[in-house]
Amino acid sequence: MTTQPKTMRNHWWWRPGWSVGRRFYTWHLTFEGQDDVHRLAAEYRSALKPLGDVLTPIPDRWLHLTMQGIGFAGESKEQDVHAIVDAARARLAAIPAFDLQIGPEVLDPEAVLLYVRPDGPVRAVRDAIRGAIGEVLNEVPEKAESFTPHVSVAYSAGNGPAEPIAQALADLNLTPAHARISSAELIVIHRDNHMYEWEPFATVSLN
Q1: Which strands form 64-72's sheet, in the order they lie side by side?
Q2: For 105-153, what is each residue's pLDDT tens digit?
Q3: Cβ neighbours of residue 15 under 8 Å, at least 6 residues apart?
Q4: Which of 33, 130, 45, 29 minimizes the C-alpha distance to 88?
């Protein structure tokens, strides 16, 4: 690991605008059918299982690489969302599919993260999506420079010392996962159940 916070904080506090029942349009890379990503996530779940309620492990179904939000359902016009998908389809068609290495882990104050390499293609996809949003909306949400591509395998479920988690991770030497990225997904996400869960809205293929 490259960092080790002294304390952890609960990831599941309600950020501004969020509450039970709210849904949000956002772009992610997801990992359905990516067996090697699921293999690595399962190894982390096994290693972290003794920590019990300290962490919320992420099931295979909900593994994701957060990309770019659009806005809350009910506040975003659905015709705008469809127009963004159309614009993204044109832009992403110019970006080739690519391979990623996922891992090893970094302990963040709110999560166990796996950085991805190379991150350039991921950033290119996000830039294309931001360009598509900019074609439709007056303002692109979220800052371009605040993006660090990663995949979380567990979230902090409370406030407390980081040392028990760091100890559980200290002796791991897990083989990073390989993923093939051939599309970006627009999803409608919620966090009602202390987990990021979603319904698909559109899948846009890369070249």
Answers
A1: 64-72, 24-30, 183-190, 197-205
A2: 999 999 999 999 999 999 999 999 999 999 999 899 999 998 999 999 9
A3: none
A4: 130
E-only strand ranges, 31-143: 55-57, 64-72, 98-108, 111-117
CA-angle at 104, arms to 102 and 110, nearest 5°? 95
Contact 54, 168 (CB under 8 A): no
Q: Is 52 exposed, middle or buried (0-12, 13-18, 19+ CB in 10 A)?
A: exposed
pTM of the model: 0.94
Q: Report the run of H or E that residue 186 belongs to, with start and end.
A: strand 183-190
Phi then psi dihedrals of residue 53, to 5 deg: -85, 0
